[in-house]
Amino acid sequence: MTRVLVEETGRDVLIRPSPVAMVWQGDEHPFEALAVPGVSLAPGDVLVEVELATVCERDVRVFLGQAGTTIPVVMGHEQVGRVVAAGERAVATDGTSLVAGMRVVWSRTINCGSCDRCSRGLTQACRSGASYGQDRVHRGWELSGGFASHVQVRAGSAIVRVDESLPAAVVAPAPCVTATVVAALEAAAERVSLSGSTVVVIGAGMRGITATAMATDAGARVVVCDPESARRSVALTFGAVAAADSRAGFRSATGVGGVLAALAASGTPEPLVVLDFLGSPAVLATAVDLVGPGGVIVLAGPALPAEGIRLDSHRLVHKGVTLRGISGSSPAHLEAAVEYLKRAWYRYPFADLVGETFPLSRVDDALASAATAKHPRVALDPRMP
Q1: What domain range is 293 assigned to?
Q2: Is the separation of the CB atoms in 109 and 117 below 8 Å?
Q3: CATH code at position 50
Q4: Between vectors from CA 267 to CA 261 and to CA 271, what angle results, nearest 5°?
């Protein structure tokens, strides 16, 4: 059982047994356990015991050497946990003072709240911000990512309270997946009403599946495009009216299983919203062809670096298409994400999107498994032996 001793200052917290963070030193190095017997909580900080963490695609790409990060690092930015100690003036986004025992999720990033970007509502792009699971672990902030028994959630983070009825597997991905999808749909809705519109979702991973459910609940008719038949089948259980095989070709109306064929078969109007969750350069050109006049294309994929993207600017301008990029989310998006999951988890099988669960000591196995898993997510449970 975890024992917490808070010193009289209300800031120095000693914990027994000591919290453990799994530190990654880079390629070909296994994760190493780092014991952190105590933390010093600044005003606004919160120490949270992790209930469950899920493995994001970005974690996998970093682990496989397909994306860069600072090292050493404690990965992980999708998790849910319970407050064990709070610094002075630590509050949730709804203004509630945070105390031990509260169940919470928190934002991927930490922001200053006062720079020009924060003032414009772009807290995720704060000029002096930090990121959970991505920034270099250092003395004073060892518990900096979700692949740990505890996380020191620092002042400037958006902390959202979580209902006890929400399954951990449903809400853990909220800081990344669900909040980003909320931001993507909000960007689309600024140009096109989702209700009654056709929405094409490209990519039926965790984000695409979540977007399918949320857009469907907003009144849209959703057609999902993905090369894997199993993922297309999952999309149908989350509200899609049709699912197309991207290998059959986007443009060919006669290509069996292609997007245009799926649109025609489902009797949907031309799409006014295209949501790209793949990040492929080829997809962007296709999206311009697919979207109808006055429509919007939202890029909310992994943002992989690419060269030589070719766009038909004439078609883009002639059709009056809006192109939006989404990276990260705001505190309001995280609040909306948790609220949505609270209403929707019993109608859609969100919990089934998380497959095998590993103990924290097997984080290497979890990341290796996530690269080939049939489920969009695998999980880590620090409480498992």
Answers
A1: 177-325
A2: no
A3: 3.90.180.10
A4: 75
Angle, helix 179-189 to helix 331-344, in steps of 10 degrees: 100
> What is the pLDDT, as a whole number, of residue 198?
93
> Which residue is associated with the tokens 């853990």?
172
Secondary structure class of 79 (helix, strand, coil): strand
For residue 76, which amino acid is it? G
Amino acid identity for residue 49 in this structure: E
Cβ atoms of 269 and 198 within 8 Å: the answer is yes
Burial pattern 341-367, b for ≥16 Cβ within 10 A else e, equals beebbeebebeebbbebbebeebeebb
State the Cα–Cα distance between residues 301 and 226, nearest whole angstrom: 14
Q: Which pTM does this prediction carry? A: 0.92
> CA neighbours within 13 Å on the CB side: how many for 299?
17
The residue among 268 and 128 whose pLDDT is bigger is: 128
- The helix (H) or strand (E) run that includes residue 356 is strand 354-359
Which distant-in-sequence residues (6+ apart) come within 8 Å of 109 by Cβ? 123, 124, 126, 129, 130, 131, 132, 157, 328
Same-domain check for residues 126 and 199 = no
Any bridge partners for residue 21, and if so which?
Answer: 34, 148
Distance CA 244, CA 265 (A): 11
Residues 162 and 186 in one domain: no
Residue 257 has pLDDT above 60, yes or no: no
* CB of 77 closer than 8 Å to CB of 132: yes
